Amino acid sequence: MAASCVALLALSLFLPLVLMSVWKRWCRERTARHVIVVVLGDVGRSPRMQYHALSLAKHGFSVTFLGFCNSKPHDEVLRNNRIRIVPLTELQRFTVGPHILQYGIKVVFQAVHLLWKLMCREPAAYIFLQNPPGLPAIAVCWFVGCLCGSKLVIDWHNYGYSIMGLVHGPSHCLVLLAKWYEKLFGRLAHLHLCVTNAMQEDLAENWGIKAVTVYDKPASFFKEMPLDLQHRLFMKLGHTYSAFRTSSEPSDLATERSAFTEWDAGSRMVTRKGPLKDYYSRLIGQKHFQHIQVCTPWLQAEDYPLLLGSADLGVSLHKSSSGLDLPMKVVDMFGCCLPACAVNFQCLRVGGSGVGLWMGTTGFWSPGRSQAFLDSLCSLHELVKHGENGLVFEDSEELAAQLQMLLSKFPDPAGKLNQFRKNLRESEQLRWDESWMQTVLPLLMDT
């Protein structure tokens, strides 16, 4: 009797899935230009997957974008009539029971919820999945692909188990289980993309996965901004953040002034005035800076490229759990011809202080830096060319020295900061869609 009940329950659960899969395979030929993009995270904070969706839509695919809708995606995604965003429900964390039980409940809920959302969509030729987070998304997307005849494409941004290891430690049972799961199901995809050559090599050597490197590239809206757009942005931000407001009002009522720009209504010119969250805000408040203002704004998606295109120098504090990914924010900065100082997220594996090294043709003297230092940068050197388009630093003291050097002659065109900016302007930078056409599109056609 009990066995019959179990069999009946299993049949009632799987029969709808089987029937839906038969129907979706029958309909698949009519919707071969449909792609599902899955992010088990916030869509608005997944720029690379947004770019995938935009490129797919531009090349004739209809796109269903599944993810959490906690922040606003870019306007180009929202305006595109070929892209439909389908929100996933984010399960709030339980506070009852042991942590492993809470995590297990969350995984089961996400698996069932994602399975239902995917099966309710029209048939797709491809399922694009961001990893991490890949638990339970990889297994669910692979299972749906088997049922419906969709091909799974995994875009490896990092490893999920290595991120979990930062919290629980590398030998924790959850971390080991996540690594086994990621390695097992990760191999089942039809196509693998990754963000660096270092990750490509690691996937091949340690996971038996053959991936194609698709570097992050800036979208077309990341560019240097003209002064009138800079002024409008600074005035807009000034309504909310005091750091963007002028310290003294202009005497001429026809002049509009921000902390960085002035607008003369008579001549209709904009000119530069020259150099002028909780946890970190408290730390910043304790510093008592005399000549520095620190602002931590929450920008709308469309204002972010405007602000980068209006800035003079970028700083990246991105660190990697695996050492195999790249700071995408630096990619955006370079798209705006904005030089960057980036923290080295790989520990030095050499002893001693090294020797001074003359870096390339830019004439930048890097004291205490040997060739071994450059070799130790791992994936970071695939993006930041130390002394050419930016600088790499180890600690706060080195960053302070770099900032002092870069800004010492600002805004003199002969200063080091402007030399870096000139190098970025003169370099041939592919934009995302151009790179996507050369790498991803041919792979899809061959898969």
Which tags fit this structure?
membrane, Rossmann fold, globular, transmembrane helix, 447 residues, transmembrane
Brief write-up:
The protein is an alpha/beta fold. It folds into 3 domains: 31-217 and 434-446, 3-Layer(aba) Sandwich (Rossmann fold); 220-299, no CATH class; 311-428, no CATH class. Helices cover 42% and strands 15% of the residues.
Topology readout:
Layout: H1 2-27, E1 34-42, H2 47-58, E2 62-68, H3 75-79, E3 83-87, H4 99-119, E4 126-131, H5 137-148, E5 151-156, H6 160-168, H7 173-186, E6 191-194, H8 197-207, E7 212-213, H9 227-238, E8 255-257, E9 261-264, E10 269-272, H10 278-285, H11 303-310, E11 314-316, H12 328-335, E12 340-343, E13 357-359, E14 364-366, H13 371-375, E15 390-393, H14 396-407, H15 416-426, H16 432-446
Parallel strand pairs: 1-2, 1-4, 2-3, 4-5, 5-6, 6-7, 11-12, 12-15
Antiparallel strand pairs: 8-9, 9-10, 13-14
Helix pairs in contact: 2-16, 4-5, 6-7, 9-11
Structural features, described:
The strands form four sheets. The chain has a seven-stranded parallel β-sheet with strand order 3-2-1-4-5-6-7, sandwiched between helices. α4 (99-119) runs parallel beside α5 (137-148), α6 (160-168) runs antiparallel to α7 (173-186) and α9 crosses α11 (303-310). The longest helix has 26 residues, at 2-27. The protein folds into three domains: 31-217 and 434-446, 3-Layer(aba) Sandwich (Rossmann fold), CATH 3.40.50.2000; 220-299, no CATH class; 311-428, no CATH class. The chain has 16 helices and 15 strands. The relative contact order is 0.09. The chain has helices at residues 2-27, 47-58, 75-79, 99-119, 137-148, 160-168, 173-186, 197-207, 227-238, 278-285, 303-310, 328-335, 371-375, 396-407, 416-426, 432-446; strands at residues 34-42, 62-68, 83-87, 126-131, 151-156, 191-194, 212-213, 255-257, 261-264, 269-272, 314-316, 340-343, 357-359, 364-366, 390-393. With 447 residues, the protein is α/β, with parallel strands linked by helices.
